[in-house]
Amino acid sequence: MTVDEESAGQRLDNFLLRQLKGVPKTHVYRIIRSGEVRINKGRASADTRVETGDQVRVPPVRLSERAVEKAEAMAAPHAPAREFPVLFEDEAVLAVDKPAGTAVHGGSGVSFGVIEQLRMARPQARFLELVHRLDRETSGILLLAKKRSALKALQDQFRERETGKTYLALVAGAWPLNKKVLDKPLHKYLLDDGERRVKVVARDDPDGMKSVTLVKVRNRSERYSLLEVTIKTGRTHQIRVHLASEGLPIVGDDKYGDFELNKALQKPAGGEGAVPLRRMFLHAWRLQFNHPATGERIELTCPLPPELARFAGQVLPDTEPS
User: Which domains does the chain have, with CATH numbers?
Assistant: First the structure.
């Protein structure tokens, strides 16, 4: 099949899910992982972006009419309509406050995410696509495009590092005030069960991807530090791995964190009124970009969600909601 102009810029998995109506989502991801899906005769991953004129080859995926009807019936109710708090919206761009625990899109064991729920809530929308991603456990600013031209312009800005992305993260320990730049290559790998992980590698490692994180201390005590973390590169789990590599992991991080501490914080020992922490303390706080239509520099901020603001106020008394 040939990618048309209207489909350009989509992730490969989303493109195939729309083209292969009635084919179970699990099967679509299986043929991508196995390498049976080719773009211009080359292997591609689920997050590869397709472009106008690309030739996408897929193996035969025939289903009977009954199977198609069954698949469509099962798929129909899986994404409930849901709106999310709007931080900015006009005819080209939509920015929402994504809650922790919600994926940005379906796939890899997740039935649906923000994008599917928004599409259900806005059936009149002719176009709605994710510009970037946030980890499922991360809350905060998520940017979407309402026009194809806006999507391509914004993705180019992200790719060329013309955007500004700053997160608020709480780490266990007193972050050194002189530790402001983390320039450590990262490498993605898979565990035996297929789960994705990332690690810091040596500078001369051929598989290492250059990764730069800027850190500013917002508030700290002997036990905790609230950091403003700006990423200059957008690697998978970059903030989580970089901070953990310094021996000060993000509080509540279930992949790279202090698991004993995380468990203890879920049931705080402080009597009545003690605030528990049952999620990772990482929040996409500020986003800067050039408006794709006007060129105006836009700066959005999103305050800490209540559960994080309360916890920060408990362990860092001088902290106020952002």
Answer: 1-76 (3.10.290.10), 163-315 (3.30.2350.10)
